[in-house]
Amino acid sequence: MSERFCVGSLESLSESEGTQVEVHGCPIAVFKKGQEVFAIGDTCPHMGAPLSDGFVDEQSVVCPWHGWSFDFKTGESPFDEDVRVPVYQVVIEGGQVYLEVEQPATEAKLDSSES
Ligand code: FES
């Protein structure tokens, strides 16, 4: 089961830098390119830098600490095919940007026990 979280308006997002949001304690980096928005895990798998503080190019973000890059669409790093960050679904409706995030197992279990 997935949940939807509002990031804000498409207009409010910067194209030159990432935006960090937190969902269930999990940091997510959001990047806008034109009329598209991408969301990936915000924690660099190398040493934990926030990718939302990274340098943004046409289709990837470069980690601000040691320069690994990650594709917005796939979460993959061109340096090593085994290194990647999670990718999250983004929905834009009525000018608002939403993340579709899987509900944590513990909460899904609580919800199902209530019905
Ligand atoms: S922490 Fe990201 S490349 Fe080192």
Automatic annotation (TrEMBL):
It comes from Eiseniibacteriota bacterium. The keyword Phosphoprotein does not apply. Transmembrane segments: none annotated. Residues 4-99 form the Rieske domain. It holds the Pfam family Rieske. This is Rieske 2Fe-2S domain-containing protein. Keywords: 2Fe-2S, Iron, Iron-sulfur, Metal-binding. GO terms for molecular function: 2 iron, 2 sulfur cluster binding; metal ion binding. The keyword Metal-binding applies.
